Amino acid sequence: MTLAPRPRSKAAIGSIVERMQALVADDLAAVEMLLAERAASPVAVIPDLSGYIVSAGGKRLRPMITLISAQAVGKTSRATHALAAAVEFIHTATLLHDDVVDESDLRRGKPAAKAIWGNKASILVGDFLFARAFNLLVETNSLDILNRLATASTTIAEGEVRQLAAMKARDLPTEDYLAIVEAKTGALFEAAAETGAMSTGSHEHAAALATYGKNLGLAFQIIDDVLDYGGTTTVIGKSVGDDFRECKITLPVIIARRRGSDEDRTFWERALNPDTQAEQDLAHAVHLIRATGAAEATVQEAEAYAALAKGALRSLPQSVYRDALEDLADFCVERAY
Amino acid sequence: MTLAPRPRSKAAIGSIVERMQALVADDLAAVEMLLAERAASPVAVIPDLSGYIVSAGGKRLRPMITLISAQAVGKTSRATHALAAAVEFIHTATLLHDDVVDESDLRRGKPAAKAIWGNKASILVGDFLFARAFNLLVETNSLDILNRLATASTTIAEGEVRQLAAMKARDLPTEDYLAIVEAKTGALFEAAAETGAMSTGSHEHAAALATYGKNLGLAFQIIDDVLDYGGTTTVIGKSVGDDFRECKITLPVIIARRRGSDEDRTFWERALNPDTQAEQDLAHAVHLIRATGAAEATVQEAEAYAALAKGALRSLPQSVYRDALEDLADFCVERAY
Questions:
Q1: Set of chain B residues whose Cβ sits within 8 Å of the Cβ of A132
Q2: 10 Å Cβ neighbour count for A308?
Q3: Alpha carbon of B198 to those of B89, B132, B297: distances in Å?
Q4: B148: distance to nearest CA of chain A, Å?
């Protein structure tokens, strides 16, 4: 097993996701049906808004983790499908609330739901989808699974609150950043993988898959955070700079500041303050993150978590599904190249 | 059984709630312990904010309905306590999100949580408490109960979204108003009473208590809506006028406008538009609601629902708990006098 990822072409990376989707195509189709069916409501705004965000071109990464984890250790069932749909609804609900909290008008380069329907509808439809997720979880017939997802949801909220508080702490320690990432992103990846295994009726590999999911989530979010500064090579596009504009302290900034000169630190101090940030500061921030090697160092941190994720899979039986989970760990990191 | 409530003094009304609290004192103490314990979090803002709202002097009406419903048909248990605490957390989460959606800075005459900690923290701590509610529901060991509360939560969100859409419809039909009230308030009262019964292990009286709870919720909210215009007698205080300032269309307004002159309707049209509402409009609105008899008519509508609530109790065995539920229906209406 290779622990360090082998950089692949963009096309090859795209094909990893497509290959995974093909691997669980029937399961994924069942989940898509559930998502469409359960986002419905007789109240007009709800299906419009929830349909917009649920079908807004997400890769269905979290439900795929659930489905493939289940296939890797047993067989998927209607319970697995309900669970995977619930995981996606919980994710969608947090996206809707995040966009309100982050004051961001774009999501994946498209207008955020709140930019179309407003903050109020986004809050309430988030609540609606979150409640629907628990209706779906009842269909797994497992109080254990339900409890795991409820706990993951409290952990996500705790992570978001910590992140909010951290906005004011410009000298955020790396450990605090990682704790936030583990809570706001790792917790749902962890629960998605673990409960996927549990939905097959066996708990045998659930703990290993929980470890896989948590570390995968960390790798995924850390890469997301470096991609928000253009990764290691990309030119600055319109999907770059959200975190910077929101003055979020992420790993590339933490490292760039730590390695920077006094002058650099003065820059970060001013630029990451919403009252003093200027339009042209983003370009200089990207420059410093590249020049100090912070982008590369951030990717290496993600690689370490991806390696831990893959390591956790060792105890699983060899199968195309285990291979797919390994590939997914590579995929999470390779997006940065 | 008297269907029309007998107006009582304020002291007598206060003592109804105190008598109910005394009737289930031990159960209520167990619920309070759970509320304090489960609102805790290592993340600093969460216990501060959730403690503020959870202990902000609510009457614990909904958990009391759960506890007394259970006692009326069987015995309370740890499951009932977990359920009652979950019901209060769901209610608290919706309050936090409502205050953000309604843009109101006061809640029960005290600063709303969002006025102290901000909208963002209120959204996220609402999510946290909502997730914690589902952890508590797992402890009921009943997927049926869990499903009922998840469904009630979706219905509440649907009601809130309908209410949001109705702000723009100044000619809101009475039926639409009632549908909104049934969803946003009736659904949780209904589930609180029904699942209280279910938590005793018997479904025998669950349907009757569901009917009781739904109609009680309607009576309660309709009275709340007339109290927001000072009820039938109260002078205008600082807890009056929230709905008016938010341009919410409630029953007193619907009736006052229907019964009013063309001139009155012109007034309502202008005054219930956030762009044209003036400071002194509230006093005239209160005057019209009294002068047209809309306040009395609104109270009568609530009395009809309170009577339906009491009627639903007929099939229950006679006990001090059934009496308490009847008294509670009276209490809901008598607050208006």
A1: 150, 154
A2: 18
A3: 19, 21, 36
A4: 8
CB-CB neighbours of A42 under 10 Å: 8
B251: tokens are: 């029953």
Contact list in A for residue B41 (CB cut-off 8 A) is 154, 158
Answer whether B127 sits within 8 Å of A157, measured CB to CB: yes
In order along its 337 residues, chain B shows pLDDT tens digits of 334 445 555 556 668 888 899 999 999 999 999 999 999 999 989 999 988 888 766 789 999 999 999 999 999 999 999 999 999 999 999 999 998 988 777 776 778 888 888 899 999 999 999 999 999 999 999 999 999 999 999 999 999 999 998 887 778 999 999 999 999 999 999 999 999 999 999 899 999 999 999 999 999 999 999 999 987 765 555 578 889 998 999 999 999 999 999 999 999 999 999 999 999 999 999 999 999 999 999 999 999 999 999 999 999 999 999 999 999 999 999 887 7
From the list B137, B141, B150, the residue facing A135 with the nearest CB is B150
* ipTM of the complex, rounded to two decimals: 0.92
Contact list, A101 vs chain B (CB under 8 Å): 120, 123-124
Task: Say how far residue A240 (Cα) sits from the centre of its chain.
Answer: 17
Domains of chain A listed by start with CATH number: 10-225+312-331 (1.10.600.10)
Residue count (chain A): 337
User: What's the rounded Cα separation, in Å, for the pair B276 and B110?
Assistant: 27
Contact (CB<8Å) A138/B150: yes
Contact B162 A127 (CB under 8 A): no
Interface test with B, best of A120, A145, A168 (most B CBs within 10 A): A120
